[in-house]
Design goal:
- By secondary structure, this protein is α+β, with helices and mostly antiparallel strands.
- It has three domains: about 55-65 and about 265-365, Elongation Factor Tu (Ef-tu), domain 3, CATH 2.40.30; about 65-100 and about 235-265, OB fold (Dihydrolipoamide Acetyltransferase, E2P) (Beta Barrel); about 100-230, Orthogonal Bundle (Helix Hairpins), CATH 1.10.287.620.
- The chain is about 45% helix and about 20% strand.
- It is built from five helices and 14 strands.
- It has helices at about 1-50, 100-160, 170-205, 215-230, 345-350, and strands at about 55-60, 65-70, 75-80, 85, 90-95, 235, 240-245, 255, 260-265, 270-275, 290-295, 300-310, 335-345, 360-365.
- A six-stranded antiparallel barrel has the order 1-10-13-12-11-14. Strands 2-9-7-4 form a four-stranded antiparallel sheet, with no helix packed on it. The protein has a four-stranded antiparallel sheet with strand order 6-5-3-8, with no helix packed on it.
- The mean pLDDT is about 85.
Length: about 375
């Protein structure tokens, strides 16, 4: 009886062990199947979807900041903006003292008027010199006629002198008359030549031009226009819409041309410079869509943009002190290439961004751009 009970218990224990092993095998099979399914699903997700997106948190906002500099020197009379203030294109930022500019404009306008009167006098002189030239031509003809008559008289008296019909005194007078006529003709010709030169010189001042197109008037008008522009430049205006930053100008300050007085950040045109690793750029193309998240607003706000360009070199290439890799202890470092991303302007208006903020950018490389 005891032996029977022992065998029964052994068989029961064996059955329980077999059932436990079978249950454990089923669980392991289910676990292996689950793991395999998850792995297969993850591989498929990563290969067919997730791998099409590349991301980086090495991204920052930037903008084409406008530097405001004066075009002329002057003393600051008024400053109408402060840092963080928003301005529109054309708004007055700084006003310079305009006394010198107004005086310069008045002087230039007077010079223009004088040049116009001078050109009118050239035109009037041309008519006067033409009359003088005609008079000198008449004088030359008259002197030539007098010389011709003196020559004839002298020849006649010299022919008669041999026969004694003309006295020596009369012959002398004829010779003197011939010499005087010769000198008069030479003087008349000289006067005629001088008249031609005077008229040519005056004509060169007005040749191929009217009063308005004369070079003297044109030069004076250009100086007047420059003086007018300089007067307008005493009022410094905003070149773009944006936020005022780095204001350094003060009332009463003497400023020189080209000296930066403030900057304007066009916050409505902020873009993102995302620095992707060189191994991520194989499928990046201009025109691909991008989703950008800022640290300021967090994941609750997503900006949308497109890739508009890739830098011509890595960030280290354009560093102030570029890396020198031609050394014996060189270590390869993964380089990053700046990628510019243009953001949607409507989203920027709704949620403005400042320059230099940290961003996270994700490019959808499924698009060919």
């Amino acid at each position: 009886m005891t032996t029977l009970n022992t065998e029964t218990l052994q068989k029961a224990d064996a059955a329980l062990d077999f059932a436990a092993k079978q249950k454990r095998k089923r669980r392991l099979a289910i676990l292996a199947t689950t793991v395999l399914s998850i792995g297969t699903g993850y591989f498929g997700y990563d290969h067919f979807y997730a791998s099409k997106f590349i991301s980086t948190d090495n991204a920052y906002t930037a903008a084409e900041t406008a530097q405001v500099t004066p075009a002329i020197a002057g003393i600051v009379r008024d400053v109408r903006v402060t840092d963080t203030g928003y301005v529109h294109k054309g708004d007055v930022l700084v006003v310079l003292d305009d006394v010198d500019a107004r005086l310069a404009l008045a002087q230039a306008e007077a010079e223009l008027g004088r040049a116009q009167r001078r050109v009118r006098s050239y035109v009037a002189n041309d008519a006067s010199l033409a009359a003088q030239l005609a008079a000198r031509a008449s004088d030359e003809k008259r002197a030539q006629a007098d010389l011709d008559r003196a020559v004839i008289d002298l020849e006649r008296r010299e022919n008669l002198a041999d026969s004694g019909s003309v006295s020596g005194d009369e012959l002398t007078k004829a010779r003197n008359a011939w010499q005087s006529a010769t000198a008069a003709l030479a003087q008349a010709r000289s006067n005629y030549t001088a008249a031609i030169g005077a008229r040519d010189a005056n004509a060169a001042l007005i040749e191929d031009s009217t009063e308005d197109s004369n070079p003297e008037v044109t030069l004076a008008r250009a100086r007047r226009d420059q003086a007018r522009v300089n007067l307008e430049r005493t009022v410094i205006r905003a070149p773009v819409d944006g936020v005022v930053a780095k204001r350094s100008v003060q009332v009463g300050q003497q400023i020189q041309p080209g000296t930066p007085v403030l900057a304007i950040v066009p916050v409505a045109e902020v873009h993102v410079d995302a620095n992707f690793k060189e191994g991520q750029l194989e499928r990046v193309r201009i025109g691909q869509p991008v989703e950008v998240v800022s640290d300021v607003y967090g994941d609750s706000v997503t900006y949308h943009g497109i890739v508009v360009g890739l830098s011509g070199g890595t960030g280290s290439t354009f560093a102030a002190i570029p890396a020198q890799n031609a050394t014996g202890n060189w270590i390869k470092v993964v380089q990053r290439v700046p990628v510019r991303i243009r953001l949607d302007s409507a989203e920027l208006m709704a949620k403005p961004l400042q320059v230099g903020l940290s961003m996270e950018a994700t490019i959808d490389t499924r698009s060919k751009g």
